[in-house]
Design brief:
Layout: H1 6-20, E1 35-40, H2 54-70, E2 74-76, H3 86-95, H4 99-115, H5 132-147, E3 151-161, E4 166-168, E5 173-174, E6 177-178, E7 186-195, H6 201-206, H7 215-225, E8 227-237, E9 240-249, E10 260-263, H8 270-273, H9 279-291, H10 294-299, E11 307-314, E12 321-326, E13 338-341, H11 347-356, H12 395-409, E14 412-418, E15 423-424, E16 437-440, E17 443-446, H13 476-479, E18 480-482, E19 489-492, H14 500-503, H15 506-509, H16 522-528, E20 533-537, H17 543-557, E21 570-573, E22 576-577, E23 581-586, E24 592-593, E25 612-616, E26 621-624, E27 627-630, E28 633-641, H18 655-662, H19 664-673, E29 681-682, H20 685-702, E30 714-715, H21 721-739, H22 743-757, E31 763-764, H23 765-775, H24 780-789, E32 813-820, E33 823-831, H25 836-845, H26 850-853, E34 858-864, E35 868-873
Parallel strand pairs: 1-2, 1-20, 10-12, 20-21, 22-29, 30-31, 32-35
Antiparallel strand pairs: 3-4, 3-7, 5-6, 7-15, 8-9, 8-11, 8-14, 10-13, 11-12, 16-17, 16-19, 18-19, 23-24, 23-25, 23-28, 26-27, 27-28, 32-33, 34-35
This protein binds one RNA strand through α7, β9, β13, α11 and β26.
Length: 874
RNA sequence: GCCCGGGUGGCGGAAUGGCAGACGCAAGGGACUUAAAAUCCCUUUUCCGAAAGGGAGUGCGGGUUCGAGUCCCGCCCCGGGCACCA
């Protein structure tokens, strides 16, 4: 490929931007201009370096940032590092290298890679969560949480992972195994710091409405918060007047259908309710349940287990006694840890009742309870007693009436519950923020803000202590301290904060990264917040985004920030998969096995035989119907799909390599041209070559082939009407598409323009210079070089964005397609200002149309101004 | 099981209810070249036809409409998330 000197150009302009601090956002920006804060989810600087997924979102935000600058906005576009976390610590365990050393090295590599891609970050604002000056304020925010009663300690059964020697958050455990490494996880009670995110559940839910976020992400957060409306109802314990069991239900209307009650194994009233005869069975069941890991609880979900306590509870609506069971399908951590079971109208209770032969009583008509539970709406039946009746009502009306009645009788009350749990906020790890807390006589006491940062001490070994405590617990000299207030001996908290902590507020620090007196200056915060555009992967849909919103609201209540929500608009970039792979399967004898007979584990369906997978070249493949087949044996189907990039599959694309071969501009442009930003899409090296060819053609549009100097065709000539039209059509399309983040079609519009412009001779400067400016956000290095070749000095980064003049888009003659009965039959060319009747007459008379009208009556004539004619005949 | 996305040429993908397939890739043909690469030009949804032209066509089946890839109803498939939360 004869190519433009991208390597030289890119290095030259990267140096220029660096030296001139072209993208520095002034500390005191010109307040007369509008602001735009465009943020990427900052990366964890892993040892593997950048992968091609990173530049996808980063290019998108960079295009927006560069565009907004040219539109006259003050743009804040920073980058930093989410640098605490397990990998560096695990590496330290293996090699003895201090995580700080590894982290610094990885950050240097990431920074160099990002700079090589030409992103317009203000590098003066770079922060890492591991910087003392940064985590000082993370600790300060923890103190705020503590002050406001939102941080507390609890002895909670946590996810203890013996292999990692640490406790994991619920969300770090997947199918009973650790998210990292896939090690088994068991439950173990430990003293932990918790954050009361549940106190903010309602606001976190309600404030989602106004956010310009993908509906799917909002929905995931809603599900995670899991709000439900119902009632708490008290059931008296039979034979023990005054003793009550409180249950939570969303279906108080089904109280008459409650045929038994279930307590969670951990429920405090289990002992009191258990009859002597059942004591051994209940104790055995509770012990078994306590030993069950989450893995076992989920694995056993198909078969429900439980034991009868021998005790009974009295249904408050009809004074009937119902048996009380203990079963682990009821969770102690949700609601009251006890339920009234209505097998006729709840699938879980239905399964349990069937298994233990408990009666099923229908109280809502409309289903067939001999087959399955009916959870839909219907008319209430069998729901009356001498005190109250809800028979004949619909479900919502019945809920309302019975709830009122319960409240009136003092037997129950309305209650809203959330699935959301408090946030387990401590880790037994070294490489994290130390808690600014000491224990005096065993009681926690926060350090004063002046004592921050509480610096992470040096440690000899990174091994977890093994008891579940962090490596910090092994440094006696650090752990032992004195209370600054009283001088009493004290011990330090040895847990550290989870990785989420640092990423909960980094967007605030970017606003004022060097402030030594505050996390962020209030005036600056008011100017820049909220973040106008936040781009990152959908894997953070719930956790990072929910935690950050929570902290932000706490800071809002504390008067630290001025907006109730941090991120106004959120966009998730889709994953980039590896190249499309065609795979042929063979059995042990080497015979090909057609792909539809191969299961997900690469085994043959039926025989279960493990098959050999073999990559096949594209030219050996043919499409037949909706399947791909092996060309030499067309009866054998081949699987055709692309996979997530992974080392083990060997399909990882290295961005450095792409930059070396085609340049950063080509990588940027390709990632944007692949398809819509949000979509999952497969990589194609041929596609990279395609956009690279486009950039080469752009280069040749402006330069003379041999000399690399300005092309002689570039002339001060006045552009023709057609040339103006081509230019302004592109300006319109590119501008609108950047605003709508449709970068793929913006690039297509520039390609169309180039295809035209290449044919021009001469090439009027006035029509070409704006093209360079439009290209600049996408391929900034090439654009800068062309701009300077065109005789301009300095960077084009702050040149005004080309203005659209709609007048150039107006055409004198328009082409209008003509349909007959909805089928395209021809086109007519008419003056743009032609009258409807003239257009319709021309349409009827058109050579290709007239035959389709012959001998028929035109029943209706439809004309959509400037777009289409449809003649309905019959 | 439930909740979101999504199914359009050989491939990635375009199309305010109004010309389906923009743009790019791949493929085929041609020009330039001693040759190749690079570059440039042409063809390329499919079927019938030498052509002109015509038929079919956006996962499947219905519907609304002058007109549906787009809206409505029912299904199938793929991707993601959640999953004893009472």
């Amino acid at each position: 490929m004869a190519v433009y000197p991208f390597a030289e150009i890119e290095k030259k302009w990267q140096r220029h931007w660096d030296e001139h601090k072209t993208f520095r956002t002034p500390d005191e920006p010109d307040r007369a201009r509008p602001k735009f804060y465009v943020l990427d989810m900052f990366p964890y600087p892993s040892g593997a370096g950048l992968h091609v997924g990173h530049p996808e979102g980063y290019t998108a935000t960079d295009i927006v940032a560069r565009y907004k600058r040219m539109k006259g906005f003050n743009v804040l576009h920073p980058m930093g590092w989410d640098a605490f976390g397990l990998p560096a610590e695990n590496y330290a365990l293996e090699t003895g290298t201090h995580p700080g050393v590894t982290t610094a090295r990885n950050i240097d590599r990431f920074r160099a890679q990002l700079k090589a891609l030409g992103f317009s970050y203000d590098w003066d604002r770079e922060v890492a969560t591991t910087d003392r000056d940064y985590y000082r304020w993370t600790q300060w925010i923890f103190l705020k949480l503590y002050e406001r009663g939102l941080a507390y300690q609890a002895e909670v059964p946590v996810n203890w992972c013996p292999a990692l020697g640490t406790v994991l958050a619920n969300e770090e455990v997947i199918d009973g195994k650790s998210e990292r490494g896939g090690h088994p996880v068991v439950r173990k009670p430990m003293r932990q710091w918790m954050l009361k995110i549940t106190e903010y559940a309602e606001r976190l839910l309600k404030d989602l409405e106004a956010l310009d976020w993908p509906e799917s992400i909002k929905e995931m957060q809603r599900n995670w918060i899991g709000r439900s409306e119902g009632a708490e109802v008290d059931f008296e314990v039979e034979g023990r007047p005054g003793e009550k069991v409180r249950v939570y239900t969303t279906r108080p209307d089904t109280l008459w259908g409650a045929t038994y009650m279930v307590l969670a194994p951990e429920h405090p009233l289990v002992d009191a309710l258990t009859a002597p005869a059942q004591r051994d069975a209940v104790r055995a069941y509770r012990e078994k349940a306590a030993r069950k890991s989450d893995l076992e609880r989920t694995e056993l979900q198909k078969v429900k287990t439980g034991v009868f306590t021998g005790g009974h509870a009295v249904n408050p609506v009809n004074r009937k006694a119902i048996p009380v069971w203990v079963a682990d399908y009821v969770l102690i951590s949700y609601g009251t840890g006890a339920i009234m079971a209505v097998p006729a109208h709840d699938q879980r209770d239905y399964e349990f009742a069937r298994q233990f032969d408990i009666p099923v009583v229908e109280v809502v008509s409309g289903g067939d309870i001999s087959k399955t539970a009916y959870t839909g709406d219907g008319v209430l039946v069998n729901s009356a007693s001498e005190w109250v009746s809800i028979n004949g009502l619909s479900v919502p009306a019945a809920k309302e009436k019975i709830t009122r009645w319960l409240e009136g009788q003092g037997l129950g009350c309305r209650k809203v519950n959330y699935k959301l749990r408090d946030w387990l906020f401590s880790r037994q790890r070294y490489w994290g923020e130390p808690f600014p807390v000491i224990f005096v006589d065993g009681r926690p006491q926060p350090l004063p803000a002046e004592a921050l940062p509480l610096v992470l001490p040096e440690v000899e070994s990174y091994k977890p202590s093994g008891t579940g405590e962090s490596p910090l617990a092994t440094i006696e000299s650090w752990v032992q301290t004195t209370d600054p207030a009283t001088g009493q001996p004290a011990r330090r908290e040895t847990n550290t904060m989870p990785q989420w902590a640092g990423s909960c507020w980094y967007y605030l620090r970017f606003i004022d990264p060097k402030n030594g007196r505050a996390a962020v200056d209030p005036a600056k915060e008011r100017y820049w917040m909220p973040v106008d555009l936040y781009v990152g992967g959908a894997e953070h849909a719930v956790l990072h985004l929910l935690y950050a919103r929570f902290w932000h609201k706490v800071l809002f209540d504390a008067g630290v920030v001025s907006t109730p929500e941090p991120f106004r608009k959120l966009v998730n970039q889709g994953m980039i998969l590896g190249e499309m792979e065609y795979t042929l399967y063979r059995d042990a004898r080497g015979h090909p096995v057609s792909a539809e007979r191969v299961d997900d584990n690469e085994c043959e369906q039926g025989t279960g035989e493990k098959l050999q997978a073999e990559r096949v070249a594209e030219e050996d493949i043919e499409k037949q119907g909706d399947a791909f087949v092996y060309r030499v044996q067309p009866n054998v189907r081949v699987s055709a799909r692309s996979f997530k990039m992974s080392k083990s599959r060997g399909n990882v694309i290295n961005p450095d390599e792409v930059v070396r071969l085609y340049g950063a501009d080509s990588l940027r442009l390709y990632e944007m041209f692949m398809g819509p930003l949000e979509q999952v899409k497969p990589w194609s090296m041929k596609g990279v070559e395609g956009v690279h060819r486009f950039l080469n053609r752009v280069w040749r549009l402006f330069t003379a082939e041999e000399t690399g100097t300005l092309n002689g065709e570039i002339a001060p000539a006045e552009p023709s009407r057609e040339q103006w039209r081509a230019l302004h059509a592109m300006i319109k399309k590119v501008t609108e598409d950047i605003e709508g983040m449709r970068f793929n079609t913006a690039i297509a519009a520039m390609m169309e323009f180039l295809n035209d412009a290449q044919k021009w001779s001469p090439r009027p400067r006035a029509a070409l210079e704006p093209f360079v400016l439009l290209l600049a956000p996408f391929a900034p290095h090439l654009a800068e070089e062309l701009w300077s070749l065109l005789g301009h000095s300095g960077s084009l980064a702050l040149e005004p964005w080309p203005a659209l003049n709609e007048a150039f888009l107006v055409e004198d003659v328009v082409e209008i397609p003509v349909q007959v009965n909805g089928k395209l039959r021809g086109r007519i060319r008419v003056p743009a200002d032609a009258k409807q009747q003239d257009i319709l007459a021309a349409a009827r008379a058109e050579d290709s149309v007239a035959p389709h009208l012959a001998g028929k009556t035109v029943r209706k004539e439809i004309y959509i101004a400037g777009r289409l004619v449809n003649l309905v005949v019959g």
